[in-house]
Structures are given as structure tokens and as C-alpha cells.
Design brief:
flavoprotein, 10 helices, about 15% strand, nucleotide binding, binds flavin-adenine dinucleotide, eight-stranded parallel barrel
Length: about 280
Amino acid sequence: MLPPIANRFVAGETAAAAFDHTRSMNDDGIGVLLNLLGEHHGDPVDVETDMRAYRQLVRDVSRADLDACVSVKPSQIGLDVSEELFARNYRSLVAHAADHDVFVWCDMEDSDTTDVTLDTFVDVARDHPWTVGQCLQSNLKRTRADLERVVDVPGAIRIVKGAYDEPASIAYTEKSRVNEAYRDDIAFLFEHRDRGIAVGSHDPAMVSLARRLGEEHGTDYEVQMLMGVRMDAQRDLAAQGVDVRQYVPYGGKWLSYFYRRVRERKGNALFALRAILGR
Ligand code: FAD
């Protein structure tokens, strides 16, 4: 069972627990992205196990009266086995989701995976318009050109700052430069799209920018944040009429995800320490 210390960031070990969390978020006007924890599967058997779980999740989401999408990682659905397996699984999951009227998001992993992930997104979105969304990372210097390529593709785009350490030859490494690129990319999306924009950030300055541009351009957009991070802000934004969607991880492989959240921010580490000490 999930220890209480982890359940700030992870909904539970089962889809049923994630559905309970989804219901309570939906009651607060917040949609969710359900992510079965798992990545870097090198064995096709592990890939197929998670694919089966995702197909079942799609059917369960479709049957339940919930505001929920599904979110997958490339290396979870085959990319560490082969590009062909990844592309086949991405395509078949989105086709299955389209049959069940469920939306699928694909995360973006490190820069070695960007080309194949984007190529597959573009192909799949053209065959299943507005059923799939793809994450892009503003810390990569290539991203402006990638946005120009995908801006007319009928799929949603989640723009994030980028979570992977990348070399300075291909990525902005100074925080201020990443923020500048992120602002520019958000502005680019609002200038060139009239739907399918998601801003994945907890940064109040970036959320304000999205709100201002959304009003200026009259464009629908959503703000996406992680479960357990700025939960009050998520509720406040939803109460003010902003479309908010929360990334909700669940499953047995919660330990490494939990440590990543704790490591990335002092406040999270203090939270963990207080939970351990029972204060
Ligand atoms: P930061 O630059 O980390 O922080 C800026 C400001 O935001 C802080 O100064 C503070 O005011 C506020 N803030 C940030 N965190 C907290 C906190 N814990 N508590 C209180 N205030 C806080 N990255 C990828 O590479 N690939 C993906 O597919 C991907 N998907 C994502 C999906 C979602 C829904 C989200 C939210 C993020 C995703 N990321 C992904 C991670 C992303 O790239 C960033 O690493 C991460 O969001 C941190 O950047 P930030 O914009 O939230 O703010």
C-alpha cells in the first residue's frame, strides 16, 4: 500500500484509487491526466503489460462519467525496445482511445527521443484529429522550429520548460534563458493556434502570461500542473474559470517518481521530512 508520505504526489497503486482522486478533483472543477507510472521498459513483455493496462484504462475512463485523459511516456510504450514498437503502440493506443472518445497525451523524454516522438505525433494526429496531444520542451534550442512544424497539426500541444538535463550545445541551461524561451514559445502558440494549447507549469508568471494571452486572443487553453504541487492555486484558478488539468500518476512504481518530486524542490523535501517526523 502507498505510504501516506507519497500520496501527496501519487494517487495510489491502482486505477481505482486514481479514479477516486479524479472524482474529488472533478468536484473542484479540475480535470485530470491519468499516468500509470512506468518508464524505460527494455523488455517487450513489460511494454505489453503497460499497453494492456492503458487500453483497459481507456475503456474505464470512457465508461466513467469523469473529466479525465490518459498520459503516456514514450519509453513506457516501447521506445527503449525499438522506434517501430513505440510508433505502433502510440498509433494503436490513440486509435483505441478515438474509438472510446478518450484523449491521449504523450510526454516528451530526453532529446535523443525528440525526433521519433514528434514524427509519430504528427502522423497519428493527422489520422486521429484532436484525439492526441504532445509535450514539447522550451529548454531545447530546436523547439521553436519544432513548434513551427507542428503548429498546424490537428493535435494539442503542451509546452513545458523541460525536465531533462541536456548539454549546452543543444539546450538553454541558464534558468533565465529557459524562462525567456518559454515565454516566447507560449506567445508563439497563442499567436498561431486557436485551440489545443496547454501550458504545463507551476510558475505564477507563466500562468499569468497564458491568462493574459488567452483573453487577448480569445483562445481556449488549459493550465496543467502536477498532483501535489500548488494545489490551492489549482483550485483557485479553476474557481476563476481557468481550465485546469492535473497530472495524476498512479501505480506500483511510485518510489522513483516520489523521490524526483522531493529532490527537485526544497519545500517538497521539507514536506517529506515533516511527514517522516509526523509533524
Ligand atoms: P519552475 O521553473 O520549476 O519554478 C518557477 C516558479 O514556479 C517557482 O519560482 C515557484 O514560484 C513556482 N513553483 C514551482 N514549483 C513549485 C512548487 N512545488 N511549489 C510551489 N511553487 C512552485 N517535462 C518534460 O521534460 N517532459 C514532459 O513531458 C513534462 N510533462 C509535464 C506535465 C505537466 C502537467 C507539468 C506541470 C510539467 C511537466 N514537465 C515535463 C516538467 C516541466 O518541464 C518542468 O520541469 C516543471 O514543470 C518545473 O517547471 P515550472 O514551469 O513548473 O516552474
